[in-house]
């Protein structure tokens, strides 16, 4: 069973947002005729879904695009008219997504460009079909990426590759994205749904408090010294020892059964 997210900003956006009984928050960008290009309303809708959902019920977020042509072809070119030169884009959806406490997965089938790639970069895990394509084409319009397509991209694939993508504004195919580590893997289209499902199910069945701690230690640690990061890691380990999920995980192992984590 799945429940729709009822926040009015979500309902009025071209976004299909549902939360399953298993705790999977599915966000489907739903403008297939415009290759799921991001508008103000769509960006606000994604943000509102992440804000309004009871995050203690969410075990994993999956972001995808409707149709078979695109995850998202970037910002809708119409939004560039009338942008404030000081604030640039005022969309805060990328940070909201990156900081969502539970794991997030970008499920990419087709074009993943510009702000679309920046959304995917704000997720924890990226899975793609082998027919997908990736790029930061902003420079061709005279812009630069404005929401992670430089900083998150270079942290993921290294400065040389990121600079080539941004400076040339050209597209790379899924095989190259896989080789560069831009996606966790590119999978044949007919095996893709099963692959996404396997990853999401593993996460959704995992211990929510442990996964939240792991995400925090990864993300905070990425900006910290090794010493500070290791300290965060050992403190998270220690804190989890007192949770019921750890007691359940250990008991299930000893009893040779699957654990049932409750997030406590
Ligand atoms: N904003 C608004 N509309 C967009 C869009 C965007 N970023 N990207 C695609 N669309 C629309 C097209 O205008 C077209 O609409 P139409 O059918 O009403 O004419 C529809 O989506 C299909 O796109 P089209 O270009 O015809 O498909 P294609 O298969 O020939 O090319 C792409 C696909 C992704 C290569 C091409 O659409 C593209 O380069 N898009 C822009 C990518 C971009 O620069 N994004 C970053 C903006 S900063």
Q: Main traits of this protein?
A:
264 residues; alpha/beta; 2-enoyl-CoA Hydratase, Chain A, domain 1; Lyase 2-enoyl-coa Hydratase, Chain  A, domain 2; seven-stranded mixed beta sheet; four-stranded mixed beta sheet; binds coenzyme A
**Number of discrete domains:** 2
Bound molecules: coenzyme A
Using the 3D structure, state the CATH architecture of the largest domain: Alpha-Beta Complex
CATH topology of the largest domain: 2-enoyl-CoA Hydratase, Chain A, domain 1
* Percent helix: 40-55%
List low-pLDDT spans.
none
Summarize the SSE layout with pairings.
Layout: E1 2-4, H1 8-11, E2 15-20, E3 24-29, H2 40-52, E4 60-65, E5 70-72, H3 93-98, E6 104-108, E7 111-113, H4 115-121, E8 125-129, E9 133-135, H5 151-157, H6 159-168, E10 172-173, H7 174-180, E11 185-187, H8 189-204, H9 208-222, H10 226-240, H11 244-254
Parallel strand pairs: 3-4, 4-6, 5-7, 6-8, 7-9, 8-11
Antiparallel strand pairs: 1-2, 2-3, 9-10
The structure holds coenzyme A.
Short description:
This protein is an alpha/beta fold. The chain has 11 helices and 11 strands. The radius of gyration is 19 Å and the shape is globular.
Q: Could you walk me through the main structural features you see in this protein, from its secondary elements to its overall organization?
A:
With 264 residues, the protein is of the alpha/beta class. The chain has two domains: 2-204, 2-enoyl-CoA Hydratase, Chain A, domain 1; 208-254, Lyase 2-enoyl-coa Hydratase, Chain  A, domain 2, CATH 1.10.12. The protein contains eleven helices and eleven strands. The protein has helices at residues 8-11, 40-52, 93-98, 115-121, 151-157, 159-168, 174-180, 189-204, 208-222, 226-240, 244-254, and strands at residues 2-4, 15-20, 24-29, 60-65, 70-72, 104-108, 111-113, 125-129, 133-135, 172-173, 185-187. The strands form two sheets. Strands 1-2-3-4-6-8-11 form a seven-stranded mixed sheet, sandwiched between helices. The chain has a four-stranded mixed sheet with strand order 5-7-9-10. α5 packs across α6 and α9 (208-222) packs antiparallel against α10. The chain binds coenzyme A.
